[in-house]
Design goal:
With about 240 residues, this protein is α+β, with helices and mostly antiparallel strands. The chain is about 20% helix and about 25% strand. The chain is built from 4 helices and 12 strands; from the N terminus they run ββαβββαααβββββββ. The protein is elongated.
Length: about 240
């Protein structure tokens, strides 16, 4: 009866004493330990001259050390899903130094130097007149001015202290009190700050550390003037009876 042949390739995990990473690699049993160390040097960053290669079983138990550089990998009892653990014997190396990026000098490009590059995303967008480099037609410029004027007129028709109803898109109307009308630092254009009757807002009257008005958390919101109607909008009756709390 013929014996079962051993596969020429074995799949193992690679780990190192110098880093926390692991990698799965397929290795040929016919390569020498010397050749293997050269490959492990590229994977782990440990020098082939100072590394010790340990063979661990599937439970992490040490089986042996691959210390014969002229021997083939297949001469050792290596099987699929075992692990080759590389220990760097160089006393000048410290654990984790390959992962410590705090000592790496970072290169930072100035805005002026970046603008001079011809192979950047900015240069591509500029060549193709995209994004901020898109050229507006006279009609588009005029339409933008008209929209801005309409927004300003709508904002100036809203007075702080009035009751209001907010309707944004298909959302249900929400009622409250106008607390602020004007421009903001968080986005361009005109905005209306509203204190809602219920906690359906997004803030307490402040955005990005700047306060525009005060109200309890989740009761405040900022809305575009076109979505705000002022008038006789009394606070809605929540349907509680006199004896309910």
């Amino acid at each position: 009866m013929a014996g079962v042949s051993t596969p020429p390739v074995v799949s193992v995990q690679i780990s190192s004493s110098m880093t926390s990473f692991t990698a799965e690699k397929r290795l040929e049993r016919g390569e020498t330990i010397s050749t293997l160390k050269g490959r492990l040097e590229l994977i782990t960053g440990c020098s082939a001259l100072t590394m010790e290669v340990q063979l661990l079983d599937r439970d992490g138990k040490l089986l042996c050390i691959l210390n014969n550089d002229s021997a083939f990998l297949g001469a050792y009892p290596v099987e699929d899903n075992m692990r080759l653990h590389v220990v760097d014997k160089d006393p000048t190396k410290k654990v984790g130094e390959f992962e410590d990026v705090s000592a790496v000098e970072k290169y930072e490009m100035t805005t002026e130097d970046y603008a001079k590059r011809t192979d950047s995303v900015r240069a591509f967008m500029q060549r193709n007149k995209m994004g901020q480099f898109k050229e507006e037609t006279p009609e588009e410029i005029q339409q933008k001015k008209e929209r801005a004027q309409m927004e300003e007129d709508a904002a100036k028709a809203i007075t702080v202290g009035l009751r209001c109803e907010v309707t944004v898109g298909n959302a249900a109307p929400r009622r409250g009190v106008v607390m602020y009308v004007g421009k903001t630092d968080f986005k361009p254009g005109w905005w209306v700050g509203v204190k809602y009757d219920e906690p359906v807002g997004k803030n307490d009257g402040s955005v990005a550390g700047k306060r525009y008005f005060s109200c309890p958390a989740k009761y405040g919101g900022f809305i575009k003037p076109k979505d705000v109607a002022v008038g006789d909008f009394p606070e809605e009756d929540l349907g509680f009876e006199d004896d309910e709390m």
